[in-house]
Specification:
about 220 residues, Rossmann fold, seven-stranded mixed beta sheet, 8 helices, 7 strands, globular
């Protein structure tokens, strides 16, 4: 059984959420043996739906990896839209640029290499949607800055907020994750839920996704 959603339910949903996109399918298939921290197709589909729903034209992503989630987001942008995505690993960023080109979205994507905590200070908003999926221990330190960069009515979406259920003490008999990362996510969940400028809901999809709208 899956840690968050039973395997049978995930098995039913999986084919419904596939993009039928050859580039996305190839990246996901190739990652089966690599194990890079990519979102699942179910989360990718959610990102695209939400970005489309709010008619996002400027999107910020923390944690590019090799561009999988970025392609889902870029697919929702208009021709003159822009995705700014930050990645600390130069090799992954290079691969992401190649994947964006293969997907035909490189004209609307800018990949910035470096520490998000440093780079984010130089980023100019406002953004319609911000997707946070980088270093878990930076979730809380980046929160206020990300909220400041978000337009009123914009969305802050954060992945891995249930962390295989390990945010619940005693849920996992043998925890697999770094305890510092787990504590960081617990702190973030509490902070984002109580943030005075955000209205937040946590969706138990895959590894948990928090969706926050910036209030006027």
């Amino acid at each position: 059984m899956g840690q968050i959603v039973p395997d049978a339910i995930e098995g039913y949903l999986a084919p419904l959420n596939r993009a039928g996109d050859p580039v996305l399918d190839a990246i996901a298939s190739g990652n089966a043996t690599r194990g890079l921290p990519l979102v699942d197709a179910e989360v990718g589909a959610l990102l695209r739906v939400l970005a489309t729903a709010i008619k996002a034209s400027r999107i910020l992503e923390i944690g590019t990896a090799i561009g999988y989630s970025g392609i889902w987001l870029a697919r929702a942008l208009p021709a003159d839209g822009m995705l700014l995505t930050l990645e600390i690993d130069e090799e992954r960023a290079r691969e992401a640029r190649d994947n964006f080109a293969r997907a035909g979205v490189s004209d609307r994507v800018s990949v910035v290499v470096g520490d998000a905590q440093l780079k984010i200070a130089k980023v100019s908003g406002p953004f319609d949607l911000i997707f946070q999926d980088g270093d878990k221990q930076l979730y809380t330190p980046l929160l206020d800055r990300l909220v400041a960069l978000l337009r009123p009515g914009g969305l802050l979406i954060t992945d891995n907020v249930l962390w295989d259920g390990e945010v619940v003490p005693g849920f996992a008999p043998t925890p697999r994750h770094n305890i510092a990362d787990t504590r960081a996510i617990v702190e973030y969940n509490e902070r984002v839920a109580a943030h005075p400028d955000l209205l937040t809901s946590i969706v138990p999809l895959r590894d948990g996704v928090s969706i926050s709208v910036k209030t006027p």
